[in-house]
Write a structure and sequence with these properties.
Belongs to the PhoU family. This is Phosphate-specific transport system accessory protein PhoU. Plays a role in the regulation of phosphate uptake. The protein starts with a helix and ends in a 21-residue tail after the last helix. The radius of gyration is 20 Å and the shape is elongated. The protein contains eight helices and no strands. Helix content is 78%, strand content 0%. With 241 residues, the protein is mainly α. The chain has one domain: Phosphate transport system protein phou homolog 2, domain 2 (Methane Monooxygenase Hydroxylase, Chain G, domain 1), CATH 1.20.58.220. The longest helix has 35 residues.
């Protein structure tokens, strides 16, 4: 590949980095709006989401153009395939941030009778997980990416803990149901963001090592992508989450 092509790849990388930054900002704003009961701040998340959507279309168009015109191979090919998938994951993270912002708006109109349970702590860990997964992808750090994948279990545990507390509270105080349901939706959206951050970490491993680990594919076969599978072994990249 010529120097111009690799310059264009760096430009694509920068666009994805910007997209990831906006997705993180949207999450931070939505959680700050939730904690401070600031409906105006929650509305700002929509603007971030629109910007994320625009960048996704640009990344997809540019990646498909490279694939069709340059016919890249090896790591460059994996990078472009991963770029399309990561842009989709980041776009969905923006959508989840909007969902949290919508819950923040609804909750701001309700009486604040209790703290937000463990949701702020869950959000902090989820946002850190997203930031670390993007950094691992940008740096081609497969070892860190694997550790990030393991952290998804912790987020699932936070969600289960929050569900247990809120569901118990709804039984004891039926008037708390509307507020508790919104908080459950927030925890659900955070859990989905963690899943998408895991996807990005998996893409980091795919680009760096040409290995697929989605759905524990690495437990089934340790062969690099492109190598023929053993008889009876699954082949191809599993479907996205």
């Amino acid at each position: 590949m010529d120097r111009h092509f690799h310059h264009e790849l760096e430009s694509l990388r920068d666009r994805l980095s910007e997209m990831a930054g906006r997705a993180e900002t949207a999450l931070v704003k939505s959680m700050e709006a939730l904690k401070t009961r600031n409906a105006k701040l929650a509305e700002e998340v929509r603007a971030e989401d629109l910007a994320i959507d625009r960048i996704e279309l640009q990344v997809e168009s540019q990646s498909l153009s490279f694939l069709g015109l340059q016919q890249p191979v090896a790591r460059d090919l994996r990078f472009l395939v991963a770029a399309i998938r990561i842009s989709n994951d980041l776009e969905r993270i923006g959508d989840h941030a909007v969902n949290i912002a919508q819950s923040a708006i609804k909750l701001s109109a309700m009486p604040q009778s209790k703290p937000l349970e463990d949701i702020p702590m869950m959000a902090e860990r989820t946002i850190t997980m997203l930031r670390d997964s993007v950094t691992a992808w940008l740096n081609g750090d497969a070892a860190t990416a694997r550790r990030i994948c393991e952290r998804d279990v912790e987020i699932d545990g936070w969600k289960a803990k929050i569900f247990a507390k809120l569901s118990g509270g709804m039984v004891q105080a039926p008037d708390s149901v509307p507020r508790a349901l919104e908080l459950l939706l927030v925890s659900r959206n955070l859990e989905r963001v963690a899943d998408l951050a895991t996807n990005i970490a998996e893409e980091a491993i795919f680009v760096a090592e040409a290995r697929v680990i989605k759905h524990h594919a690495e437990d089934v076969t340790d062969r690099p992508v492109g190598q023929a599978p053993e008889p009876g072994a699954p082949s191809g990249r599993p479907a996205s989450r």
